[in-house]
């Protein structure tokens, strides 16, 4: 039995977490805790790539997936959903097959990758809400295509993001929800009525709410207000300080409250890469600034998300004026609720843990050690 010592972010007091057979067997107070905090591992529902590794560059391999898992452990992510964006059906099927092969061949991939998030291809075809997704491959939802996805990967698709204004979207949402697949609304130009109809049909999430939207919207009504108001939708947010201004994030978080909000990184392959100019298949001429902001070169427009969830947690706490413990909840327990109850720091839960340092005003939590299912897999 291993014992992990650290500070409880909620109480500030020492605790000892006993692990047996990959499960948290006991949690008890202690005066001998290490100076670092301990939390459940971070859970990211939306990752496209990291540190030069790209899930959407074509011909995805199990080696790329394993390398991504290893890199993510260093920033405290213990569970994640590889996110495949709008592409041809052939490309999507290849990526799904590679992810299934990777899970079957590598225990760490199987432990960390809880499923797949397909973001698209049934998103808005309009400039603005479509974002960087390729227009050529935007298409209406097809239950038959979804079934081919699941056949290719052994039912690993756990989450699908779509724009509910497409013809046939309500039947599609009903079919996926009936199979326990999470349906998220995003990259949309839908009317409020279409948003609420999608929730009626079984949609349960909003993908990076406030982003993947037109630059200019009617003051009201619009699809952002509709999603904020609909209590059936949990909203995910990119809290990196660039995708949402602090006031917008704080107000949106208040509207959704701590029960119905989740942090996602939405990292792309250039996340974590050195500053400079890059040529990307998706996005074209892209610049990574000294601060890490990724933008279309020579413009103010974002070209992807660059900060890991470990940074989003710290920045969310600062932007919204919430505690470290509450910010962690948005990246552990809340997303874990959609993945079989992962992300809980309690007896009987999976021992997915991180030990980290943090101080008030820091722009990230500095991960020192990571455990996945009771096994220490990263140490700085």
Task: Please describe what this structure looks like.
With 380 residues, the protein is of the alpha/beta class. The protein is built from eleven helices and 21 strands. It has helices spanning 62-73, 89-105, 107-112, 143-153, 169-178, 192-201, 223-229, 246-256, 309-320, 324-329, 333-336, and strands at residues 2-7, 14-20, 23-29, 37-40, 42-47, 49-50, 53-54, 77-85, 116-119, 157-162, 182-185, 205-206, 234-237, 261-263, 276-280, 284-288, 294-296, 302-304, 353-357, 366-372, 375-379. Strands 5-8-9-10-11-12-13-14 form an eight-stranded parallel β-sheet. Strands 4-19-20-21 form a four-stranded antiparallel β-sheet. α8 links the parallel β13 and β14 (261-263). α2 (89-105) runs parallel beside α4 (143-153). The model has no long low-confidence stretch (mean pLDDT 96).
Structural class: alpha/beta
Number of strands: 21
Radius of gyration: 20 Å
Distance between the termini: 22 Å
Largest sheet: 8 strands, parallel
* Low-confidence blocks of residues: none
**What order do the strands of the largest sheet run in, or round the barrel if closed?**
5-8-9-10-11-12-13-14
Q: Residue share in helices? A: 25-40%
- Given the C-alpha coordinates, what overall shape results? globular
Nearest-integer average pLDDT: 96
User: What percent strand?
Assistant: 25-35%
Tally of helical segments: 11
């Amino acid at each position: 039995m291993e014992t992990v010592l650290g500070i409880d972010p909620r109480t500030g007091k020492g605790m000892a977490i006993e692990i047996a057979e990959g499960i948290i067997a006991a949690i008890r107070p202690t005066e001998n805790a290490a100076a670092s905090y301990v939390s459940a591992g971070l859970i990211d529902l939306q990752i496209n790539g990291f540190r030069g590794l790209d899930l959407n560059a074509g011909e995805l391999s199990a080696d790329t997936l394993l390398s991504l898992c290893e890199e993510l452990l260093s920033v405290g992510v213990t569970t994640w959903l590889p996110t495949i964006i709008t592409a041809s059906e052939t490309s999507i099927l290849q990526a799904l097959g590679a992810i299934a092969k990777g899970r079957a061949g590598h225990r760490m991939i199987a432990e960390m990758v809880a499923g797949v998030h397909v973001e698209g291809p049934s998103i808005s075809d309009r400039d603005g809400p479509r974002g960087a997704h390729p227009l050529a491959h935007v298409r209406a939802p097809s239950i038959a295509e979804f079934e081919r996805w699941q056949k290719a990967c052994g039912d690993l698709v756990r989450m699908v993001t779509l724009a509910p204004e497409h013809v046939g979207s309500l039947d599609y949402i009903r079919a996926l929800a009936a199979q326990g697949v999470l349906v998220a609304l995003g990259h949309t130009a839908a009317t409020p009525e279409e948003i609420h109809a999608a929730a009626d049909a079984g949609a349960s999430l909003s993908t990076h709410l406030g982003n993947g939207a037109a630059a200019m919207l009617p003051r009201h009504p619009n699809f952002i207000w509709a999603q904020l108001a609909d209590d059936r939708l949990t909203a995910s947010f990119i809290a990196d300080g660039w995708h949402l201004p602090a006031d917008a994030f704080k107000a949106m978080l208040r509207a959704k409250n701590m029960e119905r909000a989740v942090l996602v990184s939405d990292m792309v392959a250039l996340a974590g890469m050195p500053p400079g100019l890059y040529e990307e298949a998706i996005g074209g001429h892209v610049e990574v600034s000294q601060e890490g902001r990724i933008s279309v070169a020579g413009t103010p427009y974002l070209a992807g998300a660059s900060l890991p969830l470990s940074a989003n947690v710290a920045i969310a706490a600062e932007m919204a004026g919430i505690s470290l413990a509450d910010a962690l909840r948005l990246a552990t327990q809340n997303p874990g609720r959609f993945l079989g109850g992962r992300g809980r720091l309690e007896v009987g839960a999976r021992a997915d843990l991180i030990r980290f340092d943090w101080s008030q005003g820091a722009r990230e939590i500095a991960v020192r050690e990571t455990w996945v299912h009771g096994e220490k897999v990263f140490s700085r």
